[in-house]
Amino acid sequence: QVHLVESGGGLVQPGGSLRLSCAASGFTFSSYGMRWYRQAPGKERELVAAISPTGAGTNYAEFVKGRFTISRDNAKNTVYLQMNNLKPEDTAVYYCNAIATWGQGTQVTVSS
Predict the structure, then answer these.
(1) Cα–Cα distance between 99 and 101 in angstroms, integer?
(2) What is the pLDDT of residues 87-96, one digit of tens each?
(3) Which of 35, 57, 62, 71, by CA, is between 20 and 30 Å from 78?
(4) pLDDT of 49-71, one tens digit each?
(5) 73 neighbors 55 (Cβ within 8 angstroms)
(6) Is the distance from CB of 50 to CB of 70 less than 8 angstroms?
(7) Three-state DSSP class for 29?
(8) DSSP H or E segment with residue 101
């Protein structure tokens, strides 16, 4: 059974940083691409970043390019999202996604 557990969210001031983690289990992690999505109140869920199975390839939404970095550690079955220079508009619940499965999400709030 595919299981994804996000962590690392919290309250941060504008300009601050957070590192999200997503621990995966129940499948061969190193064989699948991984994605981070987010959903703000009243808005649709949107793709933030994606990474290939080996980590060699990454893609980012325009609104996070240059600020967020997705990475993975296949030995630990974990994918990360390093978020720098956070803005109030980055406030959302962040979700990990793989094989049509979602984690429970982790709340990120950017506010002074």
Answers:
(1) 5
(2) 999 999 999 9
(3) 62
(4) 999 999 999 999 999 999 999 99
(5) no
(6) yes
(7) helix
(8) strand 101-102
pLDDT category of residue 76 using cuts at 50, 70 and 90: very high
> C-alpha distances in angstroms, 11 versus 14, 37, 96?
10, 18, 19
pLDDT digits (tens, 9 = 90+) for 22-38: 999 999 999 999 999 99
Residue 1 has which token pair? 């059974």
Backbone dihedral angles phi then psi of residue 87, each to the nearest 5 degrees: -120, 155
